[in-house]
Amino acid sequence: MGATVVGCTPWRDEAHAWGPEQRAISRELEAQARAIVDGDGALDVGPVWAMTRGARVVGVGEPGQGLALFHRFMQAMVERAAADARPLVVALDVCFVDGLELDAWGRGDWDPSDPERFDPQGFEAAGAYRPLLAWIREHNQFAAPGRAIQIAGVDGCLGAGGLDPLAAYFVDLDPELAASVPNLLAPVRALKSASRRTPAHVAEARAGLAELRGRLLAQREAQVAAHGAATHAVALQLVWLAERRVDTYDDTGATPRAQRGRVMADTVAWLAEQRPDARIVVLADNEDTRRGSSSDMGRRLGERFGADYAVVHTTFDSTTYLAQRQRMWAPPGTLEAALRRPGRAYALDVRAAAAGPGSLARYLREEHWTRAYAEGLLDQARPGWSTVVPQHDYDVLVHVAFVPQAPYSRPAFGAEPSSRRAAL
């Protein structure tokens, strides 16, 4: 599972293999699919939320960047989660440090001197999440004690610049310790140079971080008394991220994508440990959230949380691309084409559907090609495709007939350009 291709058509054999059963698949899909919009085009994610079966960690994926419609869906899922009695953490695929700043902004605890940065229209890390972040900030202003939504970033952002926030964090936490942090981090910074990535230099970098961790633990009581346990835990997590940064120079057997996925999964697990009473909604790419993830995040979360990890996979049948201004349908043989339900957006309880008899159940238990990404904002955008086994990889499938160009500006969810209700 997980092979990704661009520009070829390996799904043609699928079209022939499943062609004789397509009518049965479509008929059974019609009986089991649940509409997620009403007659006026209003989005209703209630059926989707019910299909996650109360899971503690819910991964909501998007099929690509630049498709704002799916961020609208993600926001609706967060709003639905916030309506439950359980506290909520919204984990975004942004840098961990950016998540700290977004959380402070979202709670109204901090308005930095540069208002453009946290508009959030001008905050680069916010990206397409800006409407969601603005909603969270407004929600938190009126939330009861203990009901404020926490925002978190789960991407380790293991580039060299990631050390700067670690050093800055200690200025307020422990000024005396902060003075020595630059020297302790110097060996880690030196690893940017290829000539310094020797076993001896890597060991020196690890030793500096181990000393920093040791000093933090030694001062824990005083730091917790002054700033709280959560602040001390974040400091330790920042050190942990720096240690993972060193791993990128030392672990030659893992791809950068796998290293990133491992850090993201471990960060979600850390959030779960810090907030044992909370539900965590993870918003990321489909390729990160699904259990057969080539990036490892979804696989690791599935292993860690078991049935308490639910995956919502989103995809679409057709769209238009900026450069060509032409319609692009999912080709025959792909999952999007086989599970096409013309004119309507729907959710399918994959776990339940795959457990039953019939052609649809058999289809969901086999491997198929599905959209891996679609960069809707780029002129040269082309769809990519990846293999999935629906029953194994996710719990819920959300299938939209048509995705308009970003930014999203249409009143109806997933409507065709020529008809406000055609895709509902």
TrEMBL record:
Highest taxon in the source lineage: Bacteria
One BP annotation, GO: response to antibiotic
SUPFAM superfamilies, per database record: EreA/ChaN-like
CDD domains listed in its UniProt record: Ere-like (cd14728)
Protein name: Erythromycin esterase family protein
